[in-house]
Amino acid sequence: MATLGVNIDHVATLRQQRGTKYPDPIDAAILVQMAGADQITVHLREDRRHIQDRDVKLLRKIIQIPLNLEIGNTVEMIEIALSIKPDMVTLVPEKREERTTEGGLNLENTFELLKKSVDILQANNIPVSLFVEPSNSDMLLTKKINAKMVELHTGKYSELSGVEADKEFERIYQATLYAQNLGLIVHSGHGLNYKNAQRIAKIPGMRDLNIGHSIISYAVLVGLEKAVKEMKILIS
C-alpha cells in the first residue's frame, strides 16, 4: 500500500505573498500529521520563494513523522541538509524562472556532481532520492549514482488524458518495476490529484506518493484535515 507524503510548500507561498507570519507551515504540518499523513515534504529553494530556513529547522524539531527535504544540488543546500539532518533528502532540478519543478534531473549531464552529493549525504546517514523521469535509463543511472531511492516525475501523466495518459502510465509502471529490480525504493510525485493518484498508488511496490498543490487547493474549500484524510483513503 502506498503511503502519503504531503508537500506543504503552498501554505508558505500564501504567507510569503503578503509578507505576514501566517499561515504558518508549521501549523499546517501539525494538522497534516494529525490527519494521518505519513510524511511531510518541503522544498527549500535557493530563492526562498516559499519555505524558509526557519521553517525547516522547526519542522525537524516538532513533527513526529518523517521529514523529506527537497533541495537543489548546490553546496549551500547540501550544507543545510547536513546541519538539519532530515529523514531523507530528495535532490531536484531547480530554475529561478520556473513556477514549479518542470521535470526530472538530467542525470547524465550532472552525474559526477550528483554522485558526490549523494555520497556525502548518505555517509552522514541521510538517505537520498533523485527526482527523475520514468525511464529505465534514469533508473540505471540512479543506481550507479548510488542513491537509495527514486521519485518518478508524474507531471506528464497528470497533464494528459485518454490514450496518451495510458501510455505515460505504462512508462511509470515499467520504470517502477525496473527500479525495484535494481533494489531502489520508488516514490512518485508532481501533479497528482484526487482524480489520478489512485492509479499510481496501485502500482505494485510504489512506496510513497508526494502530493501538495491539489491537497492544499482542496483544503482552501473543505479544510486541511478533510483534504488529507480523503487523499489518504483514496490512495489506500
TrEMBL record:
Gene3D superfamilies: Aldolase class I (3.20.20.70). It catalyses: 3-amino-2-oxopropyl phosphate + 1-deoxy-D-xylulose 5-phosphate = pyridoxine 5'-phosphate + phosphate + 2 H2O + H(+). The record marks E151 as: Transition state stabilizer. GO terms for biological process: pyridoxine biosynthetic process. 3-amino-2-oxopropyl phosphate binds at N7, R18, G191, G212, H213. InterPro entries: Aldolase_TIM (IPR013785), PyrdxlP_synth_PdxJ (IPR004569), Pyridoxine-5'_phos_synth (IPR036130). The active site is at H43, E70, H190. 1-deoxy-D-xylulose 5-phosphate binds at D9, H10, R45, H50, T100. It comes from the Bacteria. It is found in: Cytoplasm. Pathway: Cofactor biosynthesis; pyridoxine 5'-phosphate biosynthesis; pyridoxine 5'-phosphate from D-erythrose 4-phosphate: step 5/5. It holds the Pfam family PdxJ. The keyword Cytoplasm applies. It is an enzyme of class 2 (transferase). GO terms for molecular function: pyridoxine 5'-phosphate synthase activity. One of its GO terms (cellular component) is cytosol. SUPFAM superfamilies: Pyridoxine 5'-phosphate synthase (SSF63892). Keywords: Cytoplasm, Pyridoxine biosynthesis, Transferase. Its EC number is 2.6.99.2. Belongs to the PNP synthase family. Homooctamer; tetramer of dimers. NCBIfam families: pdxJ (TIGR00559), PRK05265.1-3 (NF003625), PRK05265.1-5 (NF003627). Catalyzes the complicated ring closure reaction between the two acyclic compounds 1-deoxy-D-xylulose-5-phosphate (DXP) and 3-amino-2-oxopropyl phosphate (1-amino-acetone-3-phosphate or AAP) to form pyridoxine 5'-phosphate (PNP) and inorganic phosphate. This is Pyridoxine 5'-phosphate synthase. It comes from Fluviispira multicolorata.
